[in-house]
Tetratricopeptide repeat protein
Amino acid sequence: MNSLIKLTLFVFILFYLNGCESQEIRYHNKMIEILSEKSTIIDPEINIYASKRRLSWLQKQSHDINIASKLQHEAVIANEMLNAGYTQQAIDKYNNVLNIIDSLELSPPKEFTNSVLDLLAITNLRLGEEINCLDDHNKESCIIPIRGSGVHRNKSGTSKAIQIYNKLLSQNPNDFVYRWLINLAYMLRGDYPNNIPKKWMIPQLTPSDSISFPEFNEVASERGLDHISLAGGSIAEDLDQDGDIDIIASSWGIDNQIQLFIN
């Protein structure tokens, strides 16, 4: 009798656990279904983070009422190309806007021309980062102060950015955002502090020989943490209670997954 009861209980528990697992899988699949459906109905007009869809939507819009409207719309498209990761195309589009202004001898508001130049400079810096720090990443990439193997091998993007920042600073020498960015660009090119014009230089951005300060070592690549997604957040915690820090990383991408990295 006892054996029969034990067998009955075992079978009951087995079916119960199986039912719980099946229900959990069912709910999980339903969640995936809902999220997949939501990802197809994103409105790119209001969701500024759905960059590729927003770019496609913008390219279908017509703004040919006058040349000013057309140029402004082209600049907006260029900005969305940058947001979507089409960096070289964004550079080409910004340059096209400036070329149209020059060829037609237009006189748009100075604020518009400078905003295009500003974005063109940032986009060239971004291209340099993509070529040197994403496609050819190493332990010193993107760590300020830039030095050693963190200096760009391909200097075309930073060189073009420097040309633009020199032009912008000649018009507004007290713009400290441009001052900082031109110092950063010279540093990325390996020309800070020796070759940056003294009038733009921000001193003491390199490590001091007389001051010892601890630094973190970049180990993300060798630990498998070099995962690319759309911003999001992260949690660093000892999740499995083994004394090591684990990481959970989320993404704002509607079709991206949460990533769990167990150390």
Notes: The first helix runs from residue 2 to 40.
